[in-house]
Every structure is written in structure tokens, then in C-alpha cells.
């Protein structure tokens, strides 16, 4: 569909719910010297988009959808120039024509939260795909605070971490469909795995030292050298992952990758009521577990999972539960499956409702509860590492073990939202120019 000058096609949401329209709207322009305008090559449909689509996010105004996009810089604000100093490096190095990836939230790169790595809580944080920050399911998108938000792929290729991986030449050849996974879902899965496996309550199983000596090095105390190691059977990790949508798949891969790297013994139960999602994870596990001598993963529906965990642990339950759904039924299942003195890590985006358990219940079980949004910018190097090494999963589209099911045009946007909402398809990307 040919557009008039200064107009573009975009997927728009209209409240209160389930109303998706493809419309012709103005192309965004520079509004602030820190802005960049991106020509979108691909945009993702994410599970978090469904909160807006279903009307549970409280969006009361029409908006351009989507918070995952990869594209090319076509315009930059006046604060981008070679002599920019004292600010994030992109203000002096980003150019028109560069390919960039954008995290799903704006981050300035200059506030306290950005400096310490909690970029998702930047003082300038805004979520793409909302009325105040139009999203990436469009042909063009404006990125505020672009020097602290986007990734310049040319600059990423030159980083020391990538040089160490000897994969510098690989990055420019990655498909846009693969790169788009770095906007949200792969960093979110890595974040969930990282939080759980580095939790003080999990470290005894990782270090073979009892709590709190498993964490004592943090405080500069070497008294743990006189503490006997745990018996081997006490160090077995049992982990539940609830929700096997795209972020859940990334979480499974990240957990397996970390545990294989550490040489840990483990049992993972991957849980979802949707049979096609369970089959996808089972196929992926079959592929990446080849020649791995330790640990195993089993997929199950909700009822099966309780019996499996009970049998595995003699009713002790899981050391850690990773909740990747974002609703109270998943949280309740997480509480049921976690053992006393265990941890629940939730990266699912929850609607505005009360928690399904009380503070007393958490207290009586000594359960640690981690909640919140992934700091994508901080997790990017770890996520890129896994993306590069697992191109057999993340590099293809439409295969048995591919994370991405298909790439479609805006002409089927309404139908695609409906299918995704009903669990009839997995990860779908939009090509705005198809």
C-alpha cells in the first residue's frame, strides 16, 4: 500500500479491548535533541502486548502498538555529533544509516539507575507501545533519549566481550529476525535465570557450601574454608519454569546454558497447559542436551507438574520457581511448587490485582519473592552471548525448534493478535513493508 509523503502505516490499539486497526498516521519527527527516528525493519508481537490488547493494562487512549523493533537510523537530534562529550558514547558515534536494536523501555544512560545497571528503572523510563511513547509496530518510530536507549550493532561488534568470543564477524550477518529477540524476550529469559541461579538461597547448591557460607565471600570473610562441603545429594537443583511462551522458552534455554556451564546436577520441570508449547520446548531440549552428561528437563501440564515435583523431591519441592506468565494462577502454582527457604522469580507482567497469597504465607515458608521488569540494557551482553552460540534455535524461522514461528505483514495484524491471544501461534514478527 503506497503511502502519501509524511504518512506511514502502523498497528494501532483502540480501548477498551481487542480492537486492533492498521492505519495511516503521520511519520514521527525529531521533537527533542536527544531523539532518533528509526525506520523499522521488523517489529515483534510479545506476550506483554496482550495486556494492552485484553484491556488489563488500563490503557484508555488509542496508541501505536509494540515494544520490540530493529531498524535503521534515518534522523538524529542535534545532540548527536562527533564532539559530544560527558554523555553516553552513542551521542558521538551514532550516525544516520546505522542499524540499531531498541530495548522495550527508554533509558537515559546517565541517571543513578542506569549507572548501577537497573536500567529498567531509569528516571526517564517509558514503555514503547503506550499513548505517551508510540510503539514499533509501525514503519517509523521515534526513540527518546536514543543515546542511552538503542544499541548500535557496529559498536557492539567492537566490544571486548565480543572480541573474546571470536564472533565479531558474526554479528553483522545475523538475521534481523534473530536480532529482534534482543529487544525483550531473550534478555528477559536470561534475567529470570540469572536472578534465580545467583540467589543466596540457591548458592548452597551451586557452591556446595551451606547457607550463609555459600555467600560469605561477598563480605570478605574466608571463614567458610573450615566449613565442610555439602553431601553431593544435597546439591541437586530442582527448578520449575512456569509458562512456555516465547519468554519461557528463552528462560529454559538460559537456565540450561548456565547449568551446563557450571557442570551442575539438576532437574527442571517446564510447565504449560498448551500442548504445542510443551512440544516445542521438548524438541528444543532434545536438540541442545546432546552430549550433556548431567541434568535433565521434563515438560508437563499443570496437574502433572505437581506429581512430578513431589516424586522427584519426596515432597520437598523446588529450590527455585521461575514464573514467566504474569497472572495469579501462575503465582499460586509457583508458591505450591517452591520449597521452604526457596525463591520465586517472576518476570511476567502482572495486571493491577492483589497477590494471591499473604505476607504470612510467604513468611511461614521463608519464600523470597522477586518481581519486576527486565533491565534489558544491562542484560544485553549476556543475552547476545547466548544468541550467538544458539543460532540453531534463534537463527531460523518456522522450524521445529525455531523460537520464531513466522514473519507476516500488517495486513494480517488483527488476525495475528487474535491467534496469539488464543495460543494458536508462537512468536510472530511483523514486516512493516511487506
Automatic annotation (TrEMBL):
| Keyword field | Metal-binding, Zinc
Which cofactor(s) are needed, names only? Answer: Zn(2+)
Q: Does the keyword Nucleotidyltransferase apply?
A: no
Q: Where is the Alcohol dehydrogenase-like N-terminal domain?
A: 33-146
Q: Does the keyword Metal-binding apply?
A: yes
Q: Where are the transmembrane segments?
A: none
**Family matches, as InterPro entries:** ADH-like_C (IPR013149), ADH-like_N (IPR013154), GroES-like_sf (IPR011032), NAD(P)-bd_dom_sf (IPR036291)
Spell out the Pfam families in the cross-references.
ADH_N, ADH_zinc_N
Gene Ontology molecular function terms on file: metal ion binding
Taking every annotated instance into account, which residue ranges of this chain make up the domain Alcohol dehydrogenase-like C-terminal? Answer: 265-369
Q: Which PANTHER family match?
A: DEHYDROGENASE, ZINC-CONTAINING, PUTATIVE (AFU_ORTHOLOGUE AFUA_2G02810)-RELATED, ZINC-TYPE ALCOHOL DEHYDROGENASE-LIKE
According to UniProt, the name of this protein is Uncharacterized protein
Amino acid at each position: 500500500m503506497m503511502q502519501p509523503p509524511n504518512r506511514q502505516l502502523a498497528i494501532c490499539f483502540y480501548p477498551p479491548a481487542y480492537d486492533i486497526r492498521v492505519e495511516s498516521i503521520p511519520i514521527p519527527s525529531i521533537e527533542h535533541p536527544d531523539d532518533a527516528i528509526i525506520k523499522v525493519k521488523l517489529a515483534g508481537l510479545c506476550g506483554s502486548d496482550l495486556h494492552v490488547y485484553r484491556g488489563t493494562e488500563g490503557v484508555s487512549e488509542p496508541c501505536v502498538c509494540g515494544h520490540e523493533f530493529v531498524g535503521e537510523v534515518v534522523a538524529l537530534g542535534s545532540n548527536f555529533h562527533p564532539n559530544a562529550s560527558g554523555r553516553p558514547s552513542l551521542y558521538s558515534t551514532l550516525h544516520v544509516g546505522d542499524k540499531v536494536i531498541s530495548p522495550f523501555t527508554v533509558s537515559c544512560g546517565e541517571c543513578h539507575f542506569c549507572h548501577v545497571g537497573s536500567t529498567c528503572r531509569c528516571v526517564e523510563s517509558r514503555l514503547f507501545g503506550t499513548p505517551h511513547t508510540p510503539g514499533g509496530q509501525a514503519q517509523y518510530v521515534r526513540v527518546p533519549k536514543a543515546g542511552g536507549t538503542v544499541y548500535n550493532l557496529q559498536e557492539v561488534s567492537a566490544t571486548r566481550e565480543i572480541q573474546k568470543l571470536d564472533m565479531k564477524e558474526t554479528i553483522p550477518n545475523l538475521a534481523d529476525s534473530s536480532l529482534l529477540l534482543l529487544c525483550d524476550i531473550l534478555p528477559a529469559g536470561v534475567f529470570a535465570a540469572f536472578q534465580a541461579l545467583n540467589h543466596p538461597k540457591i548458592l548452597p547448591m551451586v557452591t556446595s557450601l551451606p547457607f550463609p557460607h555459600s555467600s560469605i565471600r561477598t563480605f570478605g570473610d574466608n571463614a567458610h574454608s573450615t566449613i565442610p562441603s555439602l553431601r553431593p545429594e544435597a546439591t541437586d537443583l530442582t527448578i520449575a519454569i512456569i509458562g512456555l511462551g516465547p519468554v519461557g522458552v528463552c528462560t529454559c534455554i538460559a537456565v540450561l546454558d548456565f547449568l551446563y556451564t557450571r557442570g551442575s546436577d539438576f532437574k527442571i520441570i517446564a510447565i504449560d497447559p498448551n500442548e504445542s508449547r510443551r512440544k516445542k520446548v521438548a524438541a528444543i531440549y532434545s536438540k541442545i542436551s546432546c552430549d550433556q552428561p548431567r541434568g535433565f528437563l521434563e515438560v508437563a501440564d499443570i496437574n502433572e507438574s505437581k506429581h512430578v515435583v513431589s516424586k522427584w523431591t519426596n515432597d520437598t519441592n523446588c529450590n527455585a520457581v521461575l514464573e514467566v506468565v504474569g497472572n495469579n494462577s501462575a503465582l499460586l502454582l509457583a508458591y505450591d511448587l517452591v520449597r521452604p527457604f526457596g525463591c520465586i522469580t517472576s518476570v511476567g507482567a502482572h495486571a493491577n490485582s492483589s497477590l494471591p497469597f499473604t505476607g504470612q504465607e510467604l513468611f511461614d515458608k521463608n519464600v523470597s519473592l522477586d518481581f519486576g521488569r527486565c533491565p534489558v540494557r544491562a542484560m544485553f551482553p549476556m543475552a547476545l552471548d547466548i544468541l550467538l552460540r544458539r543460532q540453531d534455535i534463534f537463527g531460523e524461522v518456522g522450524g521445529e525448534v525455531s523460537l520464531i514461528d513466522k514473519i507476516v505483514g500488517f495486513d494480517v495484524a488483527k488476525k495475528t493478535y487474535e491467534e496469539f491471544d488464543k495460543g494458536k501461534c508462537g512468536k510472530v514478527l511483523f514486516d512493516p513493508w511487506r
